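Q: I have 353 residues here and want to know how they pack in 3D. Can you give me a structure?
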Amino acid sequence: MMKPIIPPVAKEILKQELTADKFLRPTNKAHNEIYVVTAHNSPNVMREIGRLRELSFRSGGGGTGEEIDIDEYDYMEKPYYQLIVWDPTGEEIIGGYRYLPGSEVGFEEDGQPKFVMSHLFKFSDKFIKEYIPYTIELGRAFVQPDYQTTKMGMKSLFALDNLWDGLGALIHQVKNARYFIGKVTIYEDYPITARELIYEYMYRYFPDPDKLIAPIDPIHVSRNSKLIAKKIFTGTDSSDDYKALQKAVRTEGETIPPLFNAYIGLSNTMRFFGSIFDPDFGSVYETGIMITMADLLETKRKRYIEPYIEYLKIVLEERKVAKREAREKKLIEKAEKNKLKSEKSDLKKTRKK
């Protein structure tokens, strides 16, 4: 039975915690702001994130069923970071991700990393040795319900795009980061054939020949879906077959889930690690993937990364100017102080005469 979700955290309390030191960057579109917080330095923002995550996932057919979606990964000693998009006009959190660099992850006694993915996926020795130090695990991606429709205008239109602005910044901010890993969700009420055709497309164009990561209890595509896939995937490249996939999914009365669509359009070298059923999160199907940052398509790099680099240049220049002005002000104050001291000295000498 689903518990009632907690009431919203007061906006004034949220604004008090969203301080300048937690600000990451402005968004490219819709005039929003991106912050990075943790449950330890922003406990009230964390509660609001948990409330909105549960609200968002329930609206899609998932969720924890608890009054708030927060777990041990949010509150552990070295907690996951929370990247959020903040609407300064509406004073609301639009959406977010949580993430953890592999350089900060702990390990279980069996040698498996304490990533969120670990309760569903097994990491190979090769991945642990050669990839984890350069990896960022992403999870709990959400856009709150009010911003999933046209209700909020431009703010809604660019909600997901704003989140990707944040990921573009992480590529530069997290030292030695080369890969994103994470899970992509399909809800239980999504048509089986449509879901399995997405898997077949992923197997075909984004394989994992090194078996870096594998689901503990993998989902197997039915013989019927394999036959359908063989008939519809006849294009000469991934683009042609993706159009065929979109058409096939539409005949099932659905569209490809937004995050699948977004990730597929990011890079030609994405890796697909298979899928697994997760009964603990509203009975959903989870798919493991990895994106190599260096292989992002040029259009995505220009859209999400280059504007951040330009923003950093402006910030650095502003800091240089501010330091220079501060130095000049100090010199002027010192000169005035010395002048005043000299004038007092001269006045004393005059009086003595």
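Q: Anything worth noting?
A: The first strand starts at residue 23 and ends at 26. Residues 161 and 196 are 27 Å apart (CA to CA).
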